[in-house]
Automatic annotation (TrEMBL):
The keyword Isomerase does not apply. This is Transposase. One of its GO terms (biological process) is transposition. In the N-terminal section; belongs to the transposase 2 family. Pfam families: Cas12f1-like_TNB (PF07282), OrfB_IS605 (PF01385). It comes from Nonomuraea deserti. Keywords: DNA recombination, DNA-binding, Transposition. The lineage of its organism: Bacteria, Bacillati, Actinomycetota, Actinomycetes, Streptosporangiales. It comes from the Bacteria. Residues 314-380 form the Cas12f1-like TNB domain. Residues 181-287 form the Probable transposase IS891/IS1136/IS1341 domain. InterPro entries: Cas12f1-like_TNB (IPR010095), RNA-guided_DNA_endo/Transpos (IPR051399), Transposase (IPR001959). The keyword DNA-binding applies. One of its GO terms (molecular function) is DNA binding.
Length: 394
């Protein structure tokens, strides 16, 4: 298994100055490589690939001994690969007929990660293993940075990344060969219905509340964004306002992530088989405003629903649930959600009129009444078990 471990860094004053410099030089390298590709195609019709650009690094480093030459050659190669992935994704979107989104230059707030592709090449994950109490990571050009390692790293460290979030710095260790941690069998199965009122509703009637972290912080976020909008670009007061707004968003993200981990772990510990909807969240939260030629309808209501779905963090939760299920040896099944919310779990009658309200379900054929989310979760479970039986019979 592959798994990532994320830890807070505690740099010294000198290291706290070197880390932003490292990030800024990698951002400038990204911009130079992007401009190289743009200019080559605009002037000569030549497409520059990744294979050509790393060859220029040795000249760049030789011409800038106090800048680019300070950092790891491998980390700079990783930055060039990052640009190459952006171009490949752009061409994939063009071929698929979607909105392309050409790779663009990134402001300081949009370039926040530097990666070292191999532990030991310009970096070292456990640079002082004999230290009795504190862990350190060594980064070329920065030094031995103290790590708040709150849990044990398992497996073999493959890549190391440093990420800035507001005024904090984190190290992310991507590890291979992480051993699985199977849990004892419980014999229980469940279908889960994702929602806004409750984050998760299980087929046996259990519910996980939706904490609505973004809504709870909306007032403070609005104040921070209003304060940011009034500040002059480039000023010290604007930088402080940006930091304040970023800190609030980061706190919401951490709260959402913590809740998703706890909810997913509770499900994995309780059930051997978990069936969920195969949701297309990007399609569900697509802009409701439409276009000038075909404007959307009920835009305010749709926007509010989209915001609630994103605040609930369905995609984050399902990703975490998949990782925990794999590690614990549980079975996770995704089913097509079409019709699950309007089909009677007792008689199978499907009609729009069955869904009386957002919370109430009443079958117009047999009179069966239940909570709408529980009814949908039962249908999801049945569909998943049917898929499982078909797979076993094949």
């Amino acid at each position: 298994m592959r798994r990532s471990f994320r830890f807070l860094l505690r740099p010294t004053a000198r290291q706290a100055a070197a880390l932003p410099a490292c990030l800024e030089d990698h951002r400038m390298l990204y911009h130079a490589a992007l401009e190289h590709r743009r200019t080559a195609y605009a002037r000569a019709g030549v497409s520059v690939r990744y294979g050509k650009q790393p060859a220029e690094l040795k000249h760049i480093r030789a011409d800038d001994p106090d800048g680019q030459a300070r950092w790891s050659f491998s980390s700079q190669q990783a930055t060039l690969r990052r640009l190459d992935r952006a171009f490949r994704a752009f061409f994939d979107r063009v071929r698929a007929g979607r909105t392309p989104g050409f790779p663009r230059f990134k402001g300081r707030g949009r370039f926040d990660t530097v990666e070292w592709p191999k532990d030991g090449d310009g970096c070292r994950s456990d640079s002082q293993p004999g230290h009795p109490t504190v862990a350190y990571v060594r980064l070329q050009g920065v030094g031995h940075v103290r790590v708040h390692r709150h849990r044990t790293v398992k497996g073999r460290v493959r890549t190391i990344a440093v990420k800035r979030e507001g005024n904090r710095w984190f190290v992310v260790l991507s590890c291979d060969d992480v051993p699985a941690e199977p849990l004892p069998a419980t014999g229980a199965v469940a279908g889960i219905d994702m929602g806004v009122a409750s984050l998760v509703t299980t087929s046996d009637g259990g519910r996980v509340a939706n904490a609505r972290h973004l809504a709870a912080t909306a007032g403070r976020l609005a104040d921070a964004q209003r304060d940011l909008a009034r500040r002059k670009r480039g000023s010290q007061r604007r930088r402080k306002a940006v930091t304040r707004a970023a800190a609030l968003h980061a706190k919401v993200r951490r709260q959402r992530l913590d809740g998703a981990h706890k909810a997913a772990l509770a499900l994995v510990r309780t059930y051997d088989v978990i069936v969920h909807e195969d949701l297309r969240i990007a399609n569900m939260t697509r802009s409701a405003s439409g276009t000038m030629e075909a404007p959307g309808r009920n835009v305010a209501a749709e926007s509010g629903l989209n915001r609630s779905i994103l605040d609930a963090g369905w995609g984050m939760f399902l990703t975490i649930l998949a990782h925990k299920a794999e590690s614990a040896g549980r079975t996770l099944i995704a089913v097509n959600p079409t019709g699950t919310s309007r089909t009677c779990a007792r008689c199978g009658h499907s009609a729009k009129e069955n869904r009386v309200t957002q919370a109430a379900f009443a079958c117009t054929a047999c009179g069966h009444a239940a909570h709408a989310d529980v009814n949908a979760a039962i249908n999801i479970l049945r569909a998943g078990l049917a898929l499982r039986r078909a797979a076993e019979a094949a």
